Amino acid sequence: QIPVIGPMLMPGIEATLAKRPDWVLVDGGSPLYTRALYSHKIKYLTIHIENINDLVESAHLALKTLYFQDSTAELTDLESKIAVLRHTAFKAFPCLILLWHSPPIVIGPGSFLSEALSLIGCKNIASQKWAVTYPQISQEWLMRQKPRVLLYLQMGEKLNADLKDFVSRIWPREPPQIIILNTDYFARASFTPLLHLSALVTELGQQ
Questions:
Q1: DSSP 28-61
Q2: What tens digit of pLDDT does each residue of 22-74 get?
Q3: How many other β-carbons are positioned within 10 Å of the β-carbon of residue 118?
C-alpha cells in the first residue's frame, strides 16, 4: 500500500515530487535526499531510530510537528505497553538472532530488534562478543555457543528446511529451540515488533 520512491538508502526525488507530499519523513542517513527536498522547498522531518526510546521520541516529534499534538490515546497506550514489558520480570535465556545462515550473520549489539527481544528475556550472546551490529561469524564460533533459543528472521512462518539442516549440523547434541521471526513483523524499527512480542512470550513459555 505504501508507494515506492526508490531504494531505501537513495530514494528518488522525482518520484517524491510526483506524489506531491505535504511532508516527508526522512531517515537521518539520507543527506543527499534531504538537500534535494530542501532545494525543491518540500517540508521534511528528519528522524533516526536506533532504539526504543528513539522510536517513542520520534513519534512525539512527528505528532508535534505535523499535527501540533503532544500525544494521542494510541501512543499513550503503546507507551504503557512498553512500560509493562520493561517492568515484567521475564526469566532470562541465552539466545542468538540469526539474520542469515549461509554465511552466518547474526544481529548483535545496538540493534533495535536485540533491544526489543531483551524486553522478554532474550540475552543476546552476540551482544557480549561483537562490537558491530550485524557481524558475519564463523560456524566454529557458533558451535562453541549454547543458545537455548535461536531466533531467525525470514519471510513467512514456515520453517526453512535448509535452516533445520544447518542447526542440526551446528548443534547435533543440544539443538536450540528455533523460533521464526516473520520479517513483516520484526524487520523494521517500529512499534510493530513490540506489539508482536506477546505472541513470542507464549511461544517461549515465558508466561
A1: TT-HHHHHHHHHTT--EEEE--SSHHHHHHHHHH
A2: 999 998 777 889 999 999 999 999 998 989 999 999 999 999 999 999 999 99
A3: 18
